[in-house]
Each structure stands twice: as C-alpha cells, then as structure tokens.
Design a protein that fits this description.
38% helix, twelve-stranded antiparallel beta sheet, 23 strands, alpha+beta
Length: 827
Amino acid sequence: MNKIICFCLLVGLVFPTSIQAQRIKKKKAKSATEAPTKPKSKNGIKPYKKVITSDAVSDEGVFAVHQIDEDYFYEIPLAHLNKDMLWVSRIAQIQNGLGGGYVNAGSKTNEQVVHWVKFRNKILLKSKSFVNIADSTKAISNSVRVNNYEPTLHAFDIKAFNSDSSAVVIDVTKFFTSDIAAISGLSSRARKEYKVKKLDGSRSFINSIKSFPENVEVKQDFTYSASEPPSFRRTESISIQMNQSMILLPEEPMQPRIYDPRVGFFTVSQYDYGSEALKADQKTYIRRWRLEPKDPEAYARGELVEPVKPIIYYLDPGTPENLQAYIKQGIEDWQKPFETAGFKNAIIAKDVPTKEEDPEFSPEDIRYSVVRYVASTTRNAVGPSVSDPRSGEIIESDIIWYHNHLRSYRNRYLLETAAANPSARTLDTPAEEIGEMMRMVIAHEVGHALGFPHNMAASYAYPVDSLRNGTFTQKNGIAASIMDYARYNYIAQPGDENIRFVRQMGPYDHHAVNWGYRWLPAQSADAEKSTLNSWVLEKENDPKYKFGRQSSRFDPQSQTECIGDDPIKASTYGLKNLKYVAANLPKWTSDQTNNYQDLEELYGELLGVYSRYTGHVTNTVGGVFENIKTPEQEGVIYTNFDADAQKQAVQWLHSNIFETPEWILDKTILQNIDHAGHFEKVRRLQVRQLNSLLSFERLGRLIDGESLNDDYYSALSMLTDLRNGLWKESTRGTSVDLYRRNLQRSYVDRMEYLMTEELQPSRFRRPGFEGQIYYNTNTSDVRALVRGELKAIKSRLTSAKNGRINKETKYHYEDIIARINSLFDND
C-alpha cells in the first residue's frame, strides 16, 4: 500500500512538469507560426532593395541621395572614400536678434575638411587637418599621422551595398537631426547667452538634401528650447535653418603661391615635418582663386586672355532695385586690376537665374558666390570666403551687405566732407553719390573675398596738400588702395574745386592682383619666388605700393580712417572742417525735419569723428614706422618716428583736445538732445587720448626709442610736457574750470593705474606680428617716472592751493593732494 502511495506521489510530481513543458513548446511553436522571425542579414547588412525600396525618391550626384518618407540615405561610391571634402556650415535662415546683429542668413559657422572612411561594417565621418604635414614617402609621416589623430564626427552603420558593390549605403537621418557641435549654428557662447537647454527633436527635421556633381547640400530646421531667446521671448525657443555644404575638393590641389609679407594677402599655413630644415618648417601660402588662361600661348605673348573659370558673383534677388547697378559696378571694378595681371572678364556680376533657367540654383549652394543683401539694422558689410587649406585656393565667397550700412555712410559723408562739399549738407544725399559710396564699399568687400586684407599704409602714400587738388584727387583718389579704411576726403577745404571726396581703386590694387594672380608656368611654388620677389623690388621705394598691416597699431603710417602723409597736418584740416559742420548741424538737420532725432544721432557721430582725428595724432607719440624688407634691401624694418614731431604732437593735443573744446558745447544742440551728462561727454573724449598717451605700451616704446636713438623724445620728456600742459593753471594762479578739473582727476587716476597695475601680455603670439609689447613694469622706468611726476604735481599744488583761486579749485587741489598721499601711503 505504501509502495502504491509513493508511486502515485512520484507520478504527480513528474507528469505536471512534463505536461507544462509540452504546453510551453506548443506555445512557442504556435507563436513561431503566427509571426515567423526574419532571418538576420550577415553583419546587419541587408540587400540593397530591402533598404532602398521602390518608394525611394533619389537624387544623383557626387553621392546618390535617397529619401524614403522622413529618412535619408547616402549612397557613397567606394571611389570617394578617403577623398578630401570641404564641409561648410552656414546659416540659411535666422531668428531676429540672434548673434547681436552680426550673424545673419549666409553667415558661415564652421569650415572644415572631412573624409569618409570605411572601418569594419561602419562608415566614419572624420574631420581632417592640414596644419601638420609630411611627405608620405618619408618615415616621419607616420609620426605626424599618429600624433595628429583625426576626430570622428559620426559613425554610420553600413545598411547595404549597391548591386555591384561599388558603393555603400548609410542612413544619415539621425546625424542630420541631432545637435552635432561640429556643424551646429549655435556656438557655445550663444548657448550660454540665451540659456539654451537642448535641441527639441519634435520640432527639428531635415528640410531637404540635394546632390550635385561636386557637392551635396543639406538644409536642416532646428528648434532649441531656450530660457532667454533673443526674440519671441514667450516661446522660449530659438529656431534656425542651417545649410551644410559638402564639396569634393580637386583631386590635384592648385599650385600654391608662397606668401610674401610685403604684399598683403590672407593666408593658410602648414608645418612641414618632412622639411630638410632642422625644425618643422612653416609654409605659408596666399589665399586666391584659381585663374588659369584659356589660351596660355596668347597669355605668354602679353595678350589679354579670359580665364578657364571666371569669378562670378550673383546678386541677392532681395537687393533693392535702385542699388543693383552700383553693386554690379563695385564687383566689376576689379576687372581692370585683373587686366593688369593679364586676364579679361576675370570677375563678373550676374543676376540670380530664374527657376526656369536653373530650378536647382540656391544661394546656399557652395558652388555659387552671392552678394547677399541682409534686412538688418546692423551697420556693416563683410567679405568672407572659403578656401582649400591644402593650397589656399578660394572655392567660394559671399559678400554680405547689411541694409542700414548706407546710413553710416550718409552720416559720415556729411560730417567729414560737408565743409568743402555743398552736396553733403543734407540728410537727403543725392542718389548718385549714395550709389558711388555703395559701389566702393562693395569693391572693398570683394577685395577681401579675393584674398586681400586691409592695407592701412595706402592712405599714407599721398601728401596731405595733394588731397586739396582737384586734378590729383580725380585721377588718384584719396588713397593708393581701395583696401584701406580711407572712406572720405576730410582734408579738402571750403573753396577747393573739383575734389573727389569718395575713395576709389588705386595703383596698389593693380600691383597686388598682378603679384598674386598673374599666371606663371613655373613647375613649383618655390620656382616662382625669384620672379615674385623681383616684382616687389621694382616698386620698393614707391609709397603707392607699400603694404601696411592693420595689426601694426604702433605705426603712424598704418592708421585706420587716416589719410595723407602727415597725421598732424591732416587732423588740423579735419578739425577745421568739423568745427564748420558743428556750427551748421542744426540748420542741416533739425531745422529741415522739425525733430531732433537726426541732430542727436549726427552729433553723437561727430564726437566719434573728433575722437578719430585726435587719435591719429596721439598715435604718432612713441610711433614706430614698419617697412617690411628682406636682407637684400637697404635700410631697417623699424624706425622711430621723428622726435620733434612727437613733441609737436603732444602740444597739438593740448591745444585741440585737452584744452576744453568749447566748439562742441553748443547749447542749441545740447539742450535739445539730452537733459544732462554734457560734461561727461567731454571727459570721455579727453580721457580716451589721455589714457592712450599714458599706456604701458606707449611708454615702453618711448623707453625703447630712447635706448636706440640719440636726442630722442624720451618718456620723461613726454610726461613732463603732459604735466606742464595739464596743470598750467597751477603755475599761473588761475582757477580751474569744471572740464579741466575732471580731466586732471582722470590724469591722477591713470597715473595710479600705472603705479599699481601690471601690463598684460599681448594676445598675439606670432613673432614680429605684435601690435603690443610686453615687459616687466616693476623693473622698468615706468613706476619711477610716474612717482616722480606725482611728487612734482603735489609740490606744485601745495603752493597753488593758497593762491587767489575760487573755492572749487582750492577744494580740487586739496583732493588731488590727498589722492596722491593716499597712493604713496599704500605704496
């Protein structure tokens, strides 16, 4: 009986488990029958037709692009893997206010070289640099490679191969709908400023992807959640449309042209570790368009020949009709300099083609260069370009003109030329003259896009009095280059006849184009050097062909907004004209408009013009001429400005800025534009020049100059002349007015700064390129000189405060003495 019970229990324990197991197997089988699993493709790679289905909308080009619903696929030919491609990120549409007015539709946010690399079953998009290079046949090239590892921007799974396995298919949807920093339109600074939280994927999408024979263009619409957007604050959102251009770079890079600092060009640089030099040899090439003659033999005979591929600029269709002709003229003004280089029709202005003429034309397409007209209150214009870092070849550029910029030119035309130019004495400047100004601004910006930086020495090429001569100015303009900041002729005086007031193209522009663009049949960049050098030497003693760097802030020849070869004389003429304008400003503005808005605006800008004129003189003190030379040329590169002229400059500043400028204190203006703050306006003008004179940099240059030159205008001489002029009332027993008291207190503040602060190192790092100098202030003469000057002032005021002066002056002197004592007590 017990055996039977045990057997039953055993059966009861075993069979339910077997039955349940059978049920599970049946359930699994049934499930498999209902929804059979798809066999996995090897390595996740599927047949082409399973990925690029019959629903795909395809676009052939450098890569085939396929769209299936909301997904996008690239079909990359294996032949294009590892090829260099230029990737340019631009803003296509922008939310108002983003970037503070200086970022707009068309603005470039990043430029990089990329290449696509196959790694196992993935395609990697890698960013590539040409800063460090070496010949691949040399052993050191391996060290360059492993010490310059390329970052991976994204890794894509290979989805399929095409039918003959000559191309791979990848899904780019996630890449172009993600917030990828390397191609983003929002910088880290903007994200911080607007308190950007994240990209909102639900409001972000790919707008379009188009493929062309040499490039692929992608438009993305991105919306970010942001706590403090620049506009539409209640939405707490920033929306931006980006355009990503990827262009296949030439298989054979353009032959580069080696940079010569005696001719101004933007540049690209590389460090060649395979050089025979005992260092990584820096190679610097100019940035220029690839211009090659259609008929090399005719070109060699000296005939004008069209280039194989001319430079073409298209006009933004949003450009106002009344300005289009002037913009085209500004572009094609460069045809004459290119003719000097042997090319005809080298640069051409065109209207954007219609949809019927070219349905795929897009201003964001990197194949096209466009003059963009931006509806913005920003007052500016820029001429950026995109270039091949391997050779310096300019691939594309966009000129950007901001709508309100013409107002700046109208205002300065009135302020700087109206004394001698009756047609400028109005708010309604004649249309032809406005058009001429715009034409020259466009020509200037096109110059940047052709590779030319500012040439600030071009305005120093002509004698000051020649700019009062009508025949001379009509022929030569007011500077030797359009690339200088020499906008208007502010030197011409009332009664001077037939004067040209607006800048124009000059002889330096022809020289620079010829030097940079003339086609040479030499087989290498090094082989060109002797010819290029000879062209510079031919013109070395002619100031019209001198290049002056904008960074040379110490060079009186290379000042912005300055014209003529004598800053003191030029500014004397300029101030004489400005006083005439100030006296007539209400008549030309508020009396005509019956409101004070234009008067207020122009008065504020007049103070800025006044500051520029005086600043030109300030910069001669401690000035150093920079004339870039090679050892085969006579003379030295750096020469100190004449000592007597520096002393004259300090006296000029006393007479024209440190003495209270009563002419700008016109009650009929001041009492109609602001309720208060007038004395502070004057103090700011004066202190700007005072602080510039009393800067560590200028004092350092004066000390250096004294060490190199006999009978030089020393730092002590400058400080003594400054003290004697600023504190002259204390020796004459006269009272000090409000404006002088403010200036004298500002002087003591600045001397305290020199006694207690340290000179900060220059932000420039390239040897020989600094606009600033750096030295140890504690071991220099600066502290001792300042201490001596303050003691001299204290001694003088101690006697003067008991003289026959008013109470304000007495209290002022006692305050200055207390400030000096406090400084010495804390020293």
